[in-house]
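[Solved] Which block belongs to which protein?

Original post:
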Amino acid sequence: MLNFYLKTLVYAILLLLICLVPLSCGNDDDTADTDSSTASDTDTDTDTDTDTDTDTDTDTDTDTDTDTDTDTDTDTSPITHSVVATVTVPPEFAAVPQMIAPAYFMTPTMEGNPIIPNIGITMAPEIGPDKPFTMNTDNAGLTGQYYMAIVLFVEGGGMIEQNPVPGVDYIGMAPLPVTLGASTAEVNAGTIMLFLMPEETDGGPDAG
């Protein structure tokens, strides 16, 4: 009886093994791991250096040195038949000098037409209460005794082509006559004090 049970158990085990074999025969489809990683690292670094140096030096030197120095030479040679005088103005003088001119008269009252020398007219003379002016002129070709007069034209007054303006311009005359002639020796007319020309003149001021 025992043998019967053992045989039955062996058959059962064999049957079980037969049934299990087909289950273990599965399709093991290994899908190959296809690494489709395509390295397409393409370096397209295009370094184009377009540095164009267009430095243009347009420095133009237009330095035009124009020398317009007008040198007016003053004839400093000795004056033939020179006549000199020291001219002064009053302490209250405050006008702006424009021109000073010498003249000769036959009388101390400045009657008649004045005779203007060829030399001695000075523009913008440097004269003031504390600054006498030295007049240096010629004898205008005259011979004999004459009175030397000085006219100082100031700003707002007359000009040499006109008469001095009373109450504006200044006049004066040497106290003594000077003797003019052919001698080349210098003649000194002394000091001539100027004063404001009077508003009304009756035959001219008497400086004598």
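(Second protein starts here: sequence line, then its structure tokens.)
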Amino acid sequence: MDNQNIFHKIETVVSDMVTFVGWLIWAFIKAIATIITFSIIFALLSAIIPIPLMGTFALIFLIWLIYTHRQSITTIIAFFIACMLALALVNSIKYSLFPDWVMVKYAPLFRTEFMYKKFGSTEIKSRTVNNLTIHGTTDLDDMTINGPLAVYGRLHGSDLKVKGAITIHGQATLHDIVCADDVTIHGQANLKGIDVSGDLVVHGQLNIKRGSILGTTHVHGQAYIDKSTMADLMAHSEEITIKNSTLKNITLKQSYGRKIVVTLIDSTVDGNITFENENGIVVLKNDAKVQGKIIGGTAEQE
């Protein structure tokens, strides 16, 4: 009798587990169908209904759903878990089969401003957005961004107007850029025709032509500056070349006793050039001038 009871209990447990797994699979299928259905409905309604209003409707529907099924709250929780698993599966399949697709997320459903987040290789032209965050290789052209721009990857940008800060984690090639805040680049920077109202920070080699930097320029690497106007330049570098440009002050940070060479070609430094390691040379070519003092180094006229 005891053995029969044990086998009966095992049979009951196995039967319950099979029933639960079957229910979970069915809920999983329904979750996928629900996500696809709501995606289609959202895409159709977004053309005629403002996104903040749609977000309000979605919130009201969610509250009504929870209130209606308040007696079976565990079913609602299980259904939402199944939805999350289904969404993860759909995204995994999408990125595996179509890695170059761009996923756009309208983050603030309950606000009137749009904040774009993009993943993958991205190319955007002739758009106006409030905020832009991109993960991956990026090409931007003829855009107005009314807030910050953040790129985690290589960036090629032209004809951009950015009212917030620009942060780039990767190599940057920028042409005809106007930024009303700071610009920070973690990688090599190739800049042409750039106006920065704040600071310019480059962790890598800097090549700039026709630039106007109102704030302080910080460079951690070699720098080549041509036809540009800058306020103060602070550099961790052993070699800087400045051509046809005007700067206020130049400070060369410590370089572990190595000789630092600053070459001025038809350029003017209105203030001082300071070598913190006291082992610097300023090479003056053509009509180059230093209106202030050379501290910690010497000048050579060529």
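Accepted answer:
You had them paired correctly. Confirming on the second one: The radius of gyration is 30 Å.
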